[in-house]
Structure formats: C-alpha cells, structure tokens
Amino acid sequence: MLFPTKKCIFQLNLYFCKRLLSCSTVWKEKCNNEEYILDSNKKVILRREHAKFLKVAIVGLPNNGKSTLINQLTKRAVCPTSSKVHTTMHKFESVYSENDTQIVFMDTPGLTAPHEMKKYNLAKTFKNDPAESIAEADVIGILQDVSNIFTRIKISDIILDCLKSKRDDASLLLILNKVDRLKQKVVLLEIINQLTNKSSLKFDDIFMVSALTGDGVDDLRNYLLDSAKINDWQYEKDAFTDQPLETVIEETVRAKLLDHLKQEIPYNIKTKLEHLDIGEDGSVIALVLLDSHKKRSLYHLLKQRGQLLKSIAMSVEKELRHAFRTHVVVRLSVQTNQLKEEQSK
Which residues have C-beta within 8 Å of that of residue 112, sequence separation ≥ 6? Predict the structure, then answer.
C-alpha cells in the first residue's frame, strides 16, 4: 500500500515514476536546468549541469554503528538505530546533497556468519545486500568498533569474503568507530598498526570517528564530497532515502521496540502501518499496529496502563521529526483481539 507524500517531507517522485514507467525505455523531463532520465535499465537518473555523484557502502559486523554513522553523515535520522544487533534487516539508501554534489550512502545489515544466519533464521538480505552494495559502490567504508577488544584488531573473514565483489576502481576506507570510548588514545595507533600491517587490504585512507557524538564525521563527509566525480545524480536534490514512507515509519518503530524491550521480546513483535495522514502543512500522523504470535510480548507492552507504549511512541516521534523535518505524531496500537480470545478461554 502506497501513500501520497508532500514534497517537503519525502520527495520520492522519481521513485514512483520508476514504478509507473517500468514499461518505458527512455523518459525525459527538463526543469530548472535539470533533466530526468529513465534509462534502458529502467533506472531513473537526474542530469544536472556540473553535477558530481558518489555511491558509498558502509559495511561491518553487527552493532558496529553503521546506521548511526550514516545518519550523522546525512544529518538525518533516516536509518533506524538501536542498541541491539540486527536492527537493519535490508539495504537502506540514504541521500545527502550539497551544492552540485550528491552522495548516496548504502546502509547494510551487519555481516553475519552462515551458521548464525541459519541459527537465527535470518533473511537472505543479510548475505546478499552487503555484497550487492559493495559491487555498486565507488567508495567502501569498513567500520571497525574499536571498543570491542575481541574484533577490533582484525578484519573479519566475513568482511574479506564479501569484499570479493568490490570493483577494482573502488576506494577502500578504514573507519574506526566509537573512539570516544577509549581512555588511552595510544590504543588507536596500536589498532591501526594491526589492521594495516597484518591485513591483506590496502586502505586509501583512515578515519577515526564517534558516530554517537559526531566527532570526526565532518572530516569524513568532506573527504567524500571531494571524492565525488562528474556524474548524473540518482535522486532529486530534496530526496533523502529510497525507502517508501511507510517503511521508514515501521522500521523506526521496530528499532525503538528493540531499545525499550528486553531480550528476545521485541524480535517477536511485527509492525504494520495501519493509517497515515499527511496534513496541508506537511505534518505526519501515523497509526502503527503491533502484533505478535507470542502473547506475553504484547502483555508486556500494556503494563502500567500502557506507559511503556507511550514512551516508545514519543521516542519514535522524536526520531521521525529529525528524519522528516516536520511535525510527526505516532500512535501505537496493540492487536488485542487475540488477547481477548485467549483470556476468555
């Protein structure tokens, strides 16, 4: 189900045009020195004078901070984030446009070993999306969590295997994240020595950042802006993601459930956007239904007169206001029909 959106909120005109014109071979429209083109591969591109473009894949192990870093780089909280693993289930493209340059950041699921995918019944996107993103990327950023003493001094074999799809002309960056958690900065030098001297990879540059606080992010963004090449844009200048509006809302709710609920409970809850209203002023009002085959997960949400549910909704609203840059109201509703049936038995 698709919902209409206002230009000031989502700007996905090209996304819908791509669907509507899927039977065409070439489509052009000129406006304000911009030319929209649907090429022979059914891919919409935006041709601008003196335009520069760059596609960046951020890859790493689960919970390394990929989504948080991309949100900082694009200055919008579009990619859902939480403190738990497997928040990102599939590839998200986040768009950052500045002057004549557009950068598309590809957020991917954390790279996971095959036996873990089988154990937790993870979707194929956990394997396919990172490899596909690497194959498309002009720049690949390998994100290492320097606060994790078990993984920080070695590039995972899972990452090395995934990098086989890398183009020969793609740049490779080493991005050390969570540097704010290190009390002794000399440890960073030791980590860099380990990763550069004992790895078969040759990095074009190294960055030290804190995705949580934003430290070092401006330097990385400026580097990427300078690295962009003359090329057509893939999105309009006001676009900021390739995802439909409903997907961003549902995934943000799911991420906040992961943050507010303990252990495996939030993984058992499904989110579904039931109602969406776009106001004349561009404001967003959404109703999201929560359901689960495990009833105790739903009972947990309704404790204390639904105070936890209200707290989660407020957290979602705050995140979406930062993403959409407009007023957002979110209502969360628990699927109670099955609960009532269970209580009557």
Answer: 62, 86, 122, 126, 127, 158
Chain centroid, CA 43 distance in Å: 21
More confident residue, 213 or 343: 213
Helix (H) or strand (E) holding 60, with range, is: strand 52-60
Q: Categorize the per-residue pLDDT at 294 as very low, low, confident or very high, splitting at 50, 70 and 90.
A: confident
Query: Which class for 157: exposed (0-12), middle (13-18), buried (19 or more C-beta within 10 A)?
Result: exposed
- Reference 158, options 62, 93, 83, 57; nearest CA is 62
Tens-digit pLDDT profile for residues 34-70 = 666 555 455 566 667 789 999 999 999 999 999 999 9
Q: How far apart are CA 222 and CA 186, in angstroms?
A: 26
CB 77 within 8 A of CB 87: no
- Rounded distance between C-alpha atoms, residue 217 and residue 272, angstroms: 34
Buried b / exposed e over 120-148, threshold 16 CB at 10 Å, is eebeeebbebbbbbbebbbbbbbbbbbee
